[in-house]
Write a structure and sequence with these properties.
- The complex is a heterodimer.
- Chain A has four helices and seven strands, in the order E-E-E-H-E-E-H-E-H-E-H.
- Chain A has helices at residues 41-45, 93-96, 136-139, 147-151, and strands at residues 2-8, 11-16, 28-37, 60-68, 80-83, 130-133, 141-142.
- Chain A is globular and about 40 Å long.
- The relative contact order of chain A is 0.25.
- Classes of the chains: A alpha+beta, B alpha/beta.
- At the A-B interface, strand 1, strand 2, strand 3, helix 1 and strand 4 of A face helix 8, helix 9 and strand 8 of B.
Amino acid sequence: MKALVYNGPCDVSVKKVPDAKIERPTDVLVRITTTNICGSDLHMYEGRTDMPPGRILGHENLGEVIEVGPAVDRIKVGDRVALPFNVGCGFCENCERGLSAYCLTTNPGMAGAAYGFADMGPYAGGQAELLRVPYGDYNCLVLPRAAEEKENAT
Amino acid sequence: MLADIFPTGYHATELAGVRPGESVVIYGAGPVGLMAALSAVTKGASQVIVVDTQKDRLALAEKVGAIAIDNTEGDGVEKVMELTGGKGADRGCECVGYQCCNLHREEVPGLTMNNLVASVKFTGRIGCVGVFVPEDPGSEDKLGRVGKMPFDFGMFWFKGQSLGTGQCNVKAYNRFLSKLIEKDKVRPSFIVSHELPLEQAPEGYENFDKRKQGWTKVVLKPGR
């Protein structure tokens, strides 16, 4: 798939990388339709973090579910989903209290994980054709049918 | 917008405790600051004031009903005090972060927080969602390199202010914020300036990073 890769300070490029895929039974695979550049991506872009070269950026992601892992119950293929930048598990002490930005299991040793972000876990970003979403049932917000129209009317 | 910036802007107003009828000062008219302004207006704040140095972004703040203050045209803190009858705003939001700059485009990490302490009222509350980091080896500022900054703690304490910080728990808000979009109550995409295919992402990064006039928010479309 094509993805926006961080090469080094002020150097990003679109490259061919291995397709994102379902890695765990609770994963969902999303075909990205819209993904934004965030001001916080610029800290990494400018080389002001310890982001290693080769990683895919992008944490403002929206798309269509094209595959679900065998343990995914709620989310269906074809759902249009908005993905919180946080990657949460839904079952740790913090997620239980609604503090999904401080999930204790998705970024062990720290609290809080995100897609394509320095120091926030190994998750690839969504400035790409495909995105793996861990704990899909917990992390996906399913959008109504009319969302597609609004997405393209920006 | 639902993945991050709209919930994050809303989170700033939650951390600050914004209630209907209150006044709010927001530092930063970038995408998150503009979403905080939209959220504060939606919550029924009586006065939403946005401070920045970029005219194109301040114009967007005015579009959602906020009062824009251009820091390059005089002291922003003084103007906030004037607008709030000398009292200061009831609530404050920090939507810039550790790379905030002075008028000479030099990074001064404590600038926005200290301006908030100065322009929020006695007993007022500040919500800080701008990113601050434990270490920043690339900083030109000696304290900044080790994640510290001079903070007017004496004045903060003297004014009896309080502070909420940190990343947004998006799931706490995204469902009900999505309903506002679905039912045409808000249109956060008003900030989008560029829609590009994924291939043009490097160009998007370069222009957005340079704060090039008119590049307020870049949306990428991998499918195109």
